[in-house]
Write a structure and sequence with these properties.
Elements lengths: L1 H41 L1 H19 L8 E6 L5 H13 L5 E6 L6 H10 L3 E5 H7 L16 H8 L4 E5 L3 E3 L10 H6 L1 E5 L12 E4 L2 E4 H8 L13 H5 L11 E9 L4 H17 L9 H8 L14 E2 L3 H4 L8 E4 L10 E5 L18 H13 L27 E2 L3 E2 L5 E2 L15 E3 L5 E3 L16
Parallel strand pairs: 1-2, 1-4, 2-3
Antiparallel strand pairs: 4-9, 5-12, 6-9, 7-8, 10-15, 11-12, 13-14, 16-17
Organism: Aphanomyces invadans
Protein name: Nucleotide-diphospho-sugar transferase domain-containing protein
InterPro entries: Alpha_mannosyltransferase, Nucleotide-diphossugar_trans
């Protein structure tokens, strides 16, 4: 018995050291794995950025298929505009708009962080690098790419998009109504276009500038009509009666079109789209007829002899120079437009260009310094509270109401203009024909005629601050 018992005890005595060695080995492996995990956590930001840029965005875009959509909205952006662009997306959805939104940029102007912000805010959104595609297709040289990192990008985006019916919006547009209502405007149904008038500026610049062309001194708008390469498109020079009736043609204004909102059906006018591309890639380098992109749209249709429609109303709402310093409690807006319906009663404001509503400080980089987390939170707060844009610049937040004609402080009367902002340039809804008031001019009660630089006001009271 003792011999067999000794034989059974020997394996146990030998197993103990082996078990201890295994435990030690497992402990060493555990320590190694733990240290590796801690080291990985220290570099987690780099790993996150790599995953976000190379894998996360790819996976998001992989499952987005908008190829069958033919109607939507285009906004051109770069990194510093993301706070306003994110706010605009949420504002559109809060107004009831459900259309595809395409965010266009040029040659990597949007960082991976900007991609993430936009994709997290809305699923029905597409981001497009138009310059990259144009360079790859040979339609744009790499030496000219930087020329389109500006407002010149909008015409390029319109030409590039696969969308057929397009609303071009500026990121700083403050909307009072869902812009999809513009699809039903009679002018759009008739011509496939809705354009809006800019403020008149009686200066000898841009359309109204004069220089030597073909051994003659002529106005730039006249020079464009005289020198355009019509033969390239199978066209002949034939200025329309409408063109010859415009303020710009007659030397009364340097500007004609406001391009903060542009509505175009590309299917109706493919030739005009070809002319537009030529204007932005070639003509604008030869003749400085436009302040940025604004005049290219209507002139492309004019040069192509394709009918187009302007709003029946002139623009309204603008701040006087130095307005923010003198009246910091209200914002008049840079420019505003009425809904382009001639017979609508009451007349309704469509939008206001209110960059100062998001960055009222004079610093040009103030928008870029708003943290993305604050951008999303502020925009979400605004949507929950039934308010529109509440993207707040450091130190001076403002807010406005969705769907109202004004804010808590002031109202716009379509017949009489602004009733409370004496420091704003004021004008009621007015037509080109002079029924109530001539296009961008009016007759006062004393019978004197005066020019309107713009008018009306959409002030926004200071209401809240970031904690």
């Amino acid at each position: 018995m003792s011999r067999h018992g000794t034989e059974r005890s020997l394996p146990r005595s030998r197993a103990m050291p082996l078990m201890m060695m295994c435990i030690v080995c497992l402990f060493v492996v555990y320590i190694y794995v733990l240290n590796s995990s801690i080291a990985a956590m220290k570099d987690g930001s780099d790993v996150y950025r790599t995953i976000s840029q190379d894998q996360w965005i790819y996976q998001v875009e992989r499952y987005k298929d908008f190829s069958s959509i033919r109607r939507g909205i285009i906004v051109c952006v770069f990194d510093a505009m993301i706070p306003m662009a994110a706010s605009l997306v949420l504002e559109l959805r809060a107004l009831g708009n459900t259309e595809l939104i395409q965010m266009y940029h040029c040659n990597g102007e949007l960082s991976a962080a900007s991609y993430r912000i936009l994709y997290m805010i809305d699923a029905h959104l597409e981001i497009v690098d138009v310059c990259k595609d144009f360079v790859a297709s040979g339609r744009l040289s790499t030496s000219k790419v930087s020329d389109f990192r500006s407002f010149w990008l909008k015409p390029l985006a319109l030409v590039h998009t696969r969308l057929v019916e397009v609303i071009l919006l500026d990121a700083d547009d403050l909307l009072f109504h869902d812009p999809s209502q513009l699809w039903q405007v009679p002018g759009y149904k008739k011509t496939g276009t809705i354009f809006f008038f800019d403020r008149e500026v009686a200066k000898a610049e841009y359309l109204n500038s004069r220089s030597i062309h073909r051994f003659q001194r002529m106005q730039n708008l006249h020079a464009l009509i005289e020198t355009f390469d019509y033969a390239r498109f199978g066209l002949v020079k034939q200025p329309s009666e409408y063109l010859q009736s415009t303020l710009a043609w007659n030397g009364h204004s340097a500007h004609e079109q406001d391009s903060s909102i542009v509505v175009i059906n590309k299917a109706i006018a493919p030739l005009a789209i070809d002319v537009l591309l030529h204007l932005v890639l070639v003509t604008r380098y030869q003749l400085e007829f436009s302040y940025g992109d604004k005049e290219l749209f209507w002139l492309a249709f004019e040069l192509a002899h394709v009918p187009y429609s302007f709003s029946p109303w002139a623009n309204t709402a603008a701040a006087m120079p130095g307005d923010m310093a003198q009246h910091p409690d209200t914002i008049c807006g840079g420019l505003a437009q009425w809904m382009p319906l001639a017979d609508a009663k009451p007349r309704r404001p469509l939008d206001a260009r209110c960059r100062r509503a998001y960055t009222p400080t004079p610093r040009r980089d103030s928008v870029a310094r708003i943290a993305p987390a604050q951008t999303i939170q502020a925009a979400n707060d605004s949507r929950r509270q039934g308010q529109s844009r509440r993207i707040l610049a450091p130190g001076m937040p403002v807010q406005t109401r969705i769907g109202s004609h004004a804010t808590a402080r002031c109202s716009i009367d379509p017949e009489e203009g602004s009733q409370c902002c004496s420091h704003c340039l004021v004008a009621p809804a007015r037509t080109r024909s002079g029924q109530k008031i001539g296009h961008r001019s009016t007759t006062t009660t004393t019978g004197q005629r005066r020019q309107w630089r713009s008018g009306g006001c959409v002030p926004a009271p200071i209401s809240a601050r970031f904690p």
